[in-house]
UniProtKB/TrEMBL annotation:
The lineage of its organism: Bacteria, Bacillati, Bacillota, Bacilli, Bacillales. CDD domains: TM_PBP2 (cd06261). SUPFAM superfamilies: MetI-like. InterPro entries: MetI-like, MetI-like_sf. Belongs to the binding-protein-dependent transport system permease family. The chain crosses the membrane at residues 29-52, 91-112, 119-141, 278-300. It comes from Paenibacillus radicis (ex Xue et al. 2023). PANTHER family: BLR7065 PROTEIN, SPERMIDINE_PUTRESCINE TRANSPORT SYSTEM PERMEASE PROTEIN. This is Sugar ABC transporter permease.
Length: 307
C-alpha cells in the first residue's frame, strides 16, 4: 500500500517535471506569440489585402462588388507608358541623389574623423537635417524656393541674376527636389560612414604609412576595401528609401509641373487616390516592391562576394 502511494507520488512529480521541462523548452516560442500576432495584423494582413485588391477591378464605381480579373492589372502596369516614364524619373532621382549623398557624406565623414577639436559639435550639426520630418523639410524648402518671396531668389537678385522658378520649371523641378533630398539624407550617409571609419583597425593604416603610401593610395587601397560592406549597406538603405519617397515630392511639387517630378510613388498615389483605381494602384505597389527587392538582393549578394 505504502509502495503504491510512493509510486503515485513519483509519477505525479515526474508528470509535473515533464510539463515544466516542456514549457522551459518552448517558453521562447510561447513568448513570441503576442509579437507574432501583432506583426501579422500590421504587416501580413495589409500585404495580403494589397494582393487581393490587385486581383480585382476595384474602382470608385465597383466598391460593393469588384469583379475578379486575375493578373490583368499587373499586365496593365507593364503596358502603361506613364509607368516607364515614372520609373525613369525615379531612377534619375535615386541615382543622382544617392550618389551625391554618398560623395558628400563620405567626404564629411573623412574630414570629421580627422578632427581633433570640435568633433562632437561638428557631428551633431551635420546630423541635424536627418532629424527633421520630411514633410517639414519639404515645406521649408518650398518657402526657400518661392519665386516671389523665397530666400534663394532674393540672394540671386542681390548677386545680379534673374529669378528662377525652380519648382514650376520642367527642367529645374527634378534637380531641385534632388538637391533637397541630398541636403536632408547626406546626414544619414555621414553618420553611418563615420561610424564605419571609427571601427576600422589601425594596423593596415600603420603598415601603409610605413610602406610610404600617399594619402590617396591609402584611401584607395586600404580605406575603401575595409569600408566596402558598410558602403553597400548604406547604399541599399538609402536606395530603398529614395525609391519609395513620397512626402517631400508631394509637398514640393505634387508631381508637377505636369509630370516632370512624377516618380513611381507619386504615380501610385495619383492612380489610387485621385483616379480611384485602387486595383491598379495595388498592382503598381506590388511591382514597385518586387523591383526594390531585386535591387536589394543583388546588393546584398555583393556583400558576400570575394571581389
Amino acid at each position: 500500500m505504502q509502495q503504491n502511494k510512493t509510486m503515485s507520488a513519483s509519477n505525479r512529480a515526474l508528470g509535473k517535471g515533464s510539463i515544466l521541462t516542456w514549457l522551459d523548452e518552448r517558453i521562447r516560442f510561447i513568448l513570441l506569440i503576442p509579437a507574432f500576432t501583432i506583426m501579422v495584423l500590421i504587416f501580413f494582413y495589409p500585404v495580403g489585402y494589397t494582393f487581393y485588391l490587385s486581383f480585382h477591378d476595384w474602382t470608385f464605381f465597383t466598391l460593393t462588388d469588384p469583379p475578379f480579373i486575375g493578373l490583368q492589372h499587373i499586365l496593365d502596369v507593364f503596358q502603361d507608358k506613364s509607368f516607364y516614364m515614372s520609373m525613369f524619373r525615379t531612377a534619375l532621382y535615386v541615382g543622382v541623389g544617392v550618389f551625391l549623398q554618398l560623395f558628400f557624406g563620405f567626404t564629411l565623414a573623412l574630414a570629421v574623423n580627422r578632427m581633433k577639436i570640435g568633433h562632437g559639435v561638428a557631428t551633431t550639426l551635420l546630423v541635424l537635417p536627418m532629424m527633421v520630418t520630411p514633410v517639414v523639410v519639404g515645406l521649408m524648402w518650398k518657402f526657400i524656393f518661392d519665386y516671389n518671396f523665397g530666400v534663394f531668389n532674393y540672394m540671386l537678385t542681390l548677386l545680379g541674376f534673374e529669378k528662377l522658378a525652380l519648382l514650376s520649371s520642367n527642367s529645374l523641378a527634378l534637380p531641385s527636389i534632388i538637391m533637397v533630398d541630398t541636403w536632408q539624407w547626406t546626414s544619414f550617409m555621414f553618420i553611418t560612414l563615420l561610424a564605419g571609419l571609427k571601427s576600422l583597425p589601425n594596423e593596415p593604416f600603420e603598415a601603409a604609412k610605413m610602406d610610404g603610401a600617399t594619402a590617396w593610395q591609402t584611401f584607395c587601397h586600404v580605406t575603401l576595401p575595409l569600408m566596402k560592406r558598410i558602403i553597400i549597406v548604406s547604399l541599399v538603405l538609402r536606395t530603398a528609401g529614395s525609391i519609395k519617397v513620397f512626402d517631400q515630392i508631394f509637398v514640393l511639387t505634387g508631381g508637377g509641373p505636369g509630370t516632370a517630378t512624377e516618380t513611381t510613388s507619386i504615380l501610385l498615389h495619383r492612380k489610387a487616390f485621385v483616379d480611384f483605381d485602387f486595383g491598379y494602384g495595388a498592382a503598381l505597389a506590388i511591382v514597385l516592391t518586387v523591383i526594390v527587392g531585386i535591387i536589394c538582393w543583388f546588393a546584398i549578394r555583393s556583400l558576400y562576394s570575394e571581389k
